[in-house]
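call fold(seq) -> tokens
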Amino acid sequence: MKTKIWAVISAALCILLFTSCSMGALMRQSSQKARAENSEASSVVDADGNIRETRFFGTYTIPAGWTEAPEFSTDEKWFYVKDGTDLSSPTSNISVECGTNRYSADQHEAFRQAIVSQLAQQTSAAGSTSMTGTGTSTDAGDVLYVFTIENSDGTTTIQYYIVGDKQYVMVHATDFYDEAIPDLQETARSIAYSFEWA
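ret:
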């Protein structure tokens, strides 16, 4: 009887170990695929110095005078700062990232409500002073939701959500009101409006 119990336990442990190893391998493959896709990114600079970035999920334009900060960027999130910015302390910046969700492009209002609920919880916990939102569309005609959060520490956060089919791109601007970076909000808006899905 004890032998049968140990056999069942051993079989269960083998199944659990196999499942864990398989999941780990799948996660590594997914991460490697994302890195490979991201390594295929390209940039084209136009005559005015604007940079047209191409990532695996789409393209967007970085206005002249701004550049990527590779020391903060990852395989899934890219940070941009004003040229010549001192990065030794917190500074106004813009990030771009792509994420997935369960909503189709036609369900953008449900997606918006999910984002509103999430932001309301975050702002309440962080003691933010106010949050406003609006809806519009990108230059390419995709649904675009914009949320502006006034933080209790004196900074402003603006999040642009471009809605795709079960995915989204977020352009996130954090404004510390640095006098040397007066065009942060305009730059973030330009990036968001210029976005086109791949």
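The mean pLDDT is 85.
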